[in-house]
Write the structure tokens for this entry.
Amino acid sequence: MQDLALEKTMEPALAVSNLNVEILGENGAFPVVSEMSLSVNRGETVCIVGESGCGKSMTALSLLRLLPESARVASGSIKIHGEDFLAMDQRKMEDFRGDKIAMIFQEPLTALNPVLTIGEQISESVRQHRKLGKREAFARAVKCLELVQMPDPERRARQYPHELSGGMRQRAMIALALACEPKIIIADEPTTALDVTVQAQILGLISDLQKRLGTAQILITHDLGVVAEIADRVIVMYAGRPVEECSVYELFDNPLHPYTIGLMGAVPHRGEAEAAPRRLADIPGTVPPLWDLPKGCAFAPRCPGASSRCLEERPPFVEMKPGHFAACWEHDHA
Amino acid sequence: MTLPKRFRNISLILGTLIVLAIVICAVFAPYLTTHGIEQMDMRNRFSGPTLTHWLGTDNFGRDLWSRLIFGARVSLTIACISVAVSCIIGTAVGLAAGYFGGWTDLILMRITDIFLGFPAIVLALAIVAVLGPGMVNVALAIIVVAWTEYARVVRATTLMLREQNYVLAAKALGADPARILVKEILPNAMGPIIVLASLGFGTAIISESALSFLGFGLPPPTPTWGWTLSYGTRFMRDEPWLAIIAGATIMVTVLGFNLLGDGLRDALDPRHLSRSAGKKK
């Protein structure tokens, strides 16, 4: 009943607006995520892309209110089906986690409890949200494992994480996240710890399940190959800020922000008949430390087309073309 | 019989055998004794080991073997009660202090420090002196001191475990603190708790013997090891058997539990675990 009511209002499944996260360091607080806004609809996959330390994982953790003690949400709002997640009390928040919104973690080995069997872990989580007996919950766990195409689910449910292969562990992790059929799934680099063939299987599984279950999905990655594979829309982050947001086609065909263009150039290409392999492009310099960001555009010191204005003033994150947002002075007139 | 490799260590096997032998003696005491524990044989006082009295007799001619076997019951019962209760209290305090941190941690650990501040035996003597002798009171005297050890170790383990990814993952799935403590952290902390408990048995037996030795244990004619040792020392010059055998019994028992604890520590060491998990990869 309640779910139906929620879906009728055309609210996005997850809406984040103007989220600011800061880390409380010894020399005061500094921002790790700034002015992050995003919304994900039912059945949609949004990818957040960026290099290590750009605030991707912090964004993911803040969406579940799982930030470490040293960090906190300074301002902004997170709405799940229109309900303010940040304002909820502990109890209600725990009810939402796992039931309405769930997370797939990066390293399935460390994210599974080593001393409980896979089946126990899934049924524990189910029993947290549903009034089910032990046996029913276990049966449901086996069903979930079947859903993620775990071979021999009945037997695997009785095994411990260390008895499974890397790919199977990630399947178990996904089954754990899906156990209560959450409407929103956040996946933080779900394939990074896996080898390439298994990566493809897991990505296939994730997008297949999403089509069947119609979940809204946020996928965090640094791998543009993954983005091309399953994203609908993409947000590129740099130094804690979104610098570009558009559809996946637009991103690959028509990137606007010089950082995105640089990322594209840094991806190895294959097949184009060239006499000598092209040298891989790189972006000179490194990401500025978050506690010492430049005054203007954070990317300006590394940007090939930076002007004096870029160094002085931070470009606003605005809609350059319909549905295509970017933060860059160069394209201001476009 | 094939044991997994990590259980194949000498102190674990030796400790298990000694503990098993003593537990069997205590459980089947009535079937293993040769004489009644209060049956006096005045013609054979201080007899020394003979065929009828395997370990000799005491100053009333009571059979020492039979008395020590029944003494094992007393010692083990008190040890069981005190280990179980102090383990539960200490673990609960340690889990709460380690997981919630902040003020909870500060207050709980300062309380623990207060209990640790007293010399253990003086505190135990005071408690028995106030409450009077009796099995429960002796156990209580041991518990009051023993739980602190569990609290400190479990707190330290919890501090480490609460940072684990699977705890974060459990939170992400909506687990409340109680569930995280009981289902995620406690099972992973069982290794050190089991080790402490088996070492705790040894400590509890020593404490109980010390209290009985000082006359604060179960009152005679209960055949406690400590009291047997205590009055044995009075005849030490002429008849050393009594004290030596009673002392050796205590020593071997405690040694057994300590070996068991040390062996378990080696077997349950997380480094061993990670090594064997690494091989499987």
Chain A touches chain B through 32 residues (CB under 8 Å). Chain A has a mean pLDDT of 84. The two ends of chain A are 47 Å apart (CA to CA). The longest strand of chain A covers residues 28-40.
